Amino acid sequence: MTIAEQMRTLAVAARQASRRMATLSTSTKNQLLVTMATSLETHQQWLQQENNKDLERAGQTGMAAAMVDRLTLTSERIVAMADGLREVAALPDPVGEITGMWLRPNGIQVGRQRIPLGVIGIIYESRPNVTADAAGLCLKSGNAVILRGGSEALASNQAIGKLLQQCLAEQGLPEAALQVVTTSDRNAVTALLTLEEQIDLIIPRGGEGLIRFVAEHSRIPVIKHYKGVCHVYVDGEADLTMAEEICLNAKVQRPGVCNAMETLLVHRDSAAVFVPQIVAAMRQAGVEVRGCDKARQLVADLVPATEEDWYAEYLDLILALRVVDDFDQARDHIEAYGSLHTEVIVTTNYQRSRQFLREINSSVVMVNASSRFSDGNQLGLGAEIGISTTKLHSFGPMGLEDLTTRKFVVLGQGQVRP
Amino acid sequence: MTIAEQMRTLAVAARQASRRMATLSTSTKNQLLVTMATSLETHQQWLQQENNKDLERAGQTGMAAAMVDRLTLTSERIVAMADGLREVAALPDPVGEITGMWLRPNGIQVGRQRIPLGVIGIIYESRPNVTADAAGLCLKSGNAVILRGGSEALASNQAIGKLLQQCLAEQGLPEAALQVVTTSDRNAVTALLTLEEQIDLIIPRGGEGLIRFVAEHSRIPVIKHYKGVCHVYVDGEADLTMAEEICLNAKVQRPGVCNAMETLLVHRDSAAVFVPQIVAAMRQAGVEVRGCDKARQLVADLVPATEEDWYAEYLDLILALRVVDDFDQARDHIEAYGSLHTEVIVTTNYQRSRQFLREINSSVVMVNASSRFSDGNQLGLGAEIGISTTKLHSFGPMGLEDLTTRKFVVLGQGQVRP
Q1: ipTM score over 0.85, yes or no
Q2: Has UniProt tagged this entry with the keyword Calcium (chains A, B) (predicted)?
Q3: In the structure, what pLDDT confidence band is assigned to residue A186 with cuts at 50, 70 and 90?
């Protein structure tokens, strides 16, 4: 079989299995996830043996230390995967929920009911814990899942997949509901991306290169975010102590993630006090600040910011800082350079808070809170399968509900159309 | 300027205009639509003059009579377009609606608020009324719209577009919020389909060829349905008088549309009575019935159905008829040959009605009602922009709400992440 034929066979089996998964009761799905959690913990030693195969290969190829760290399945991480599955088991099941039911003049009753999407493909990079995390969310929402992790984690992903499949089989459920692609051939990805009849949604998780590759080659809908260039705007009327706390948290609490602040916009009325204040605080926290001309008039030794800095997702202890004349300039800046991820206003002015929430159409807009809350868990979705910065289907952090769609149900007593 | 550059300029202007449209009050949008309706009626004579240019060209190229009919802007149709705009003006505005607002343990309040998608591209075929209908829905939902109709309706579409644009200008709104592509070059479509930064959604409306072309060439999300192979399943326990009425309505009330029945499945327990009954009724209504072997044992002179008949969307007075052994066989048939559009069960059995609603995951599932109700207006969405038979974003008939998405809004008092 060619790679393309293998992928088709696998996807056809997933489609078949998805029909069964869609009809499972919540308690069956919860039981499955809890059993999976136990299995990961019980087979911890074997998982680490398999993980060692990947780590040995990584050693031979001279993988960077940070990458090796992400690849390593420590005992703690295996327990965390298991706990993650238990947490998803404890979440409410979105499937079957009727989100509305109304009566038409002719007496037919019309409702909308949540159903699983069907088959979801996850294309991801090195971290093997994604295998269990994504599988848990897809199965709980009644879908079948095809997992294609990075080739550097092949043995680890296969091992996790094998354990989870055994749990499916033990409960009399189709193993094809969860399949790990076991070839490291990149053609497997391109082949999967053409199977629009079998796969309903592709979620790529990883660097911008991977995501662009998937988006460009896919015939299947893709939910994605390329980057997070998140802004904090400190208004002309603001509690500057609060502003400092929010900015520091947004920048340094975990700088390497997509909801960290990358650009700080300061209204000129706050600039004389706040720019020196925040630059000092950021420097103390080890952050390099790059400023516009007006900011550099206030703090002489700032690194000058260039046009590229406004587009940059540093994912590092670097901050771009711009002084703006008014609200409109802040909004225009966010529209021109932003990535539709998360934007924050710090203000004490009611009017302006409303205007920001109304006029900024990024996926998450906040008043007086750290951008670091832009996360499925923090926002209360229970768990996160990904973040979307395109507006179709989902916009922002995605939870279980985003892995479902709604069908119309109609209850009649013989009505026909006149 | 090349065609590609023209399309980019147009789309950049649309994106710019969409920012303004997103912030309009409901009353401004309603006023706009009502003004547009009046303008169409006031300029009826001019519209018909422009329409005559298309009709003359159609005459020269020997267009089929049915096509010429669809192209013609009668006085009645112009009034219908205007009324359509007034009806959309009267619908509730989905934009700004908060669909949930909850409190997190740390005191931040999290909500989801409806916002417009941004810029919507409509690619459609001959009927010029789509220009006004689609524009009304897109503008009411706060979006900008790019309309690309068939080249055979170019003069008519341009005329309608011009009137509607004047209404925008008169109210001080950006004309670029509504643009009609004025070239008949097909490269304009392929160029539009690559502008993923400027256009948020493409909705193709027309034949399967157009829709496949758009789906294959688009880098922008597409909402589409290829065809409607709708099934009615008459259960073993059913009111056969009701079943006959529903089947007749579903097949002959308007056979040329996507929610008409194409295949009738009859449980064997009902077959001996119902097959002869429905074949007689269908024949009296001018319908050719093509049957499976079991059906032909009951009505000897039935045309034999072939494998292709089960896949067929006849859009005509032809019906495929199959006798099934049980519920599972009906479900498997629908899964194998269906198009996820609309399926109906006729039954008196409570259990089976529930099973059908649960196990059939087409976009509309009905009990004891005609498939002809599968339509945005009939289901109570107020108006219909299209139908989706893919599950992402929308599934089934789409109304105003489907032209919006939701962003997260977060209200804090200085919270940071620990």
Answers
A1: yes
A2: no
A3: confident
